Each structure stands twice: as structure tokens, then as C-alpha cells.
């Protein structure tokens, strides 16, 4: 990782943890365009996770569910830890956050909302990442 990439990556993680999902998505999208292989897949998954949470918060439940599923498909195969974060922990928290929405069978859910205390945070396993 170049120093510039590392700094922008850290900024994207910071924005995610501050729940500024739109700006996080913008930063990660720039990095995604410069990446290859599993790093590209990881960044795409994080972009989709951020946008899923953005949609969930704006009650675009269909978009939130679709992007939740896409994000999990990209991130789950990457293992316990990836690019300095506790990825398995993140995915468990992400799933817990979406559990009520995913279980809801209403066409237009009226009893579901994004609960701030369930919004997942990125946990760094690499010193100085966050």
C-alpha cells in the first residue's frame, strides 16, 4: 500500500465509523478504481456495506437489502482479517444490524428502522490504522 493509498484508506474507515456513509463510499470508490484482485473485491464490499447502511437509514429498504447481500458475498470469503481490520467481527455486527430488516416480510416495512446502537464499526487489528 502506498502512503497516499494508506492515508485515504484510513480516511474511508474513519468516515465509516463516524457513520458518514456517503462520503466513505466516495473515498473507497477512488481506492477501488486503483485496486486489483482481493483488495478490489474487499473495497467493493465495503462500498456496498456503506451504501446499504446509507439506504437503510433513509428507509430505502429494498436497496439496503440488495446491497447488504452483495457486500456479504464480496467480504465473507476474505477471512477473519483483511487489510488491517477484524473482518469477521465486522460481518457479524453487520448481520446483526440488518437482522430485523432481513426477517421482515412486509413489502413496505413500517416497523423497521436502523438502530444506531447496532450500526457496525470497523475494528482495526493493525496498529495506528484508526
What does the model show?
This protein has helices at residues 3-17, 21-33, 37-57, 61-75, 87-103; strands at residues 81-82, 85-86. The chain contains 5 helices and 2 strands, in the order H-H-H-H-E-E-H. Strands 1-2 form a two-stranded antiparallel ribbon. It has a single domain (3-118), classed as TTHA0068-like (Hyaluronidase domain-like), CATH 1.10.3450.10. Strand 1 and strand 2 form a beta hairpin. The mean pLDDT is 94. It is mainly α. The longest helix is centred in the middle third of the chain and has 21 residues, at 37-57.
What distinguishing features does this structure have?
130 residues; Hyaluronidase domain-like; 5 helices; mainly alpha
Tell me the radius of gyration.
Answer: 14 Å
Number of helices: 5
User: How many domains comprise the coordinates?
Assistant: 1
What share of the residues lie within helices?
55-70%
Largest sheet: 2 strands, antiparallel
Shape: elongated
Order of helices and strands: HHHHEEH
Mean pLDDT: 94
**Full CATH superfamily name:** TTHA0068-like
Determine the oligomeric state from the structure: single chain
Which fold does the CATH topology refer to?
Answer: Hyaluronidase domain-like
Residue runs with pLDDT of under 50 for 5 or more positions: none
What share of the residues does DSSP label as strand, in percent?
Answer: under 5%
User: Which strand order spans the largest sheet, edge to edge or round the barrel?
Assistant: 1-2
The appropriate CATH architecture is: Orthogonal Bundle
Could you say which structural class the secondary elements and strand pairing correspond to?
mainly alpha
Number of strands: 2
- In the CATH scheme, the class would be Mainly Alpha
Distance between the termini: 16 Å
Amino acid at each position: 500500500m502506498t502512503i497516499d493509498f494508506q492515508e485515504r484508506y484510513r480516511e474511508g474507515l474513519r468516515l465509516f465509523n463516524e457513520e458518514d456513509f456517503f462520503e466513505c463510499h466516495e473515498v473507497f470508490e477512488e481506492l477501488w478504481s486503483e485496486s486489483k484482485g482481493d483488495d478490489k473485491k474487499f473495497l467493493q464490499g465495503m462500498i456496498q456495506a456503506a451504501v446499504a447502511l446509507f439506504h437503510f437509514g433513509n428507509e430505502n429498504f429494498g436497496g439496503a437489502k440488495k446491497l447488504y447481500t452483495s457486500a456479504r458475498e464480496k467480504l465473507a470469503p476474505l477471512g477473519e482479517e483483511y487489510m488491517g481490520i477484524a473482518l469477521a467481527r465486522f460481518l457479524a455486527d453487520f448481520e446483526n444490524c440488518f437482522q430485523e430488516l432481513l426477517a421482515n416480510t412486509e413489502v413496505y416495512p413500517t416497523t423497521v428502522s436502523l438502530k444506531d446502537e447496532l450500526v457496525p464499526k470497523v475494528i482495526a487489528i493493525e496498529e495506528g490504522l484508526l
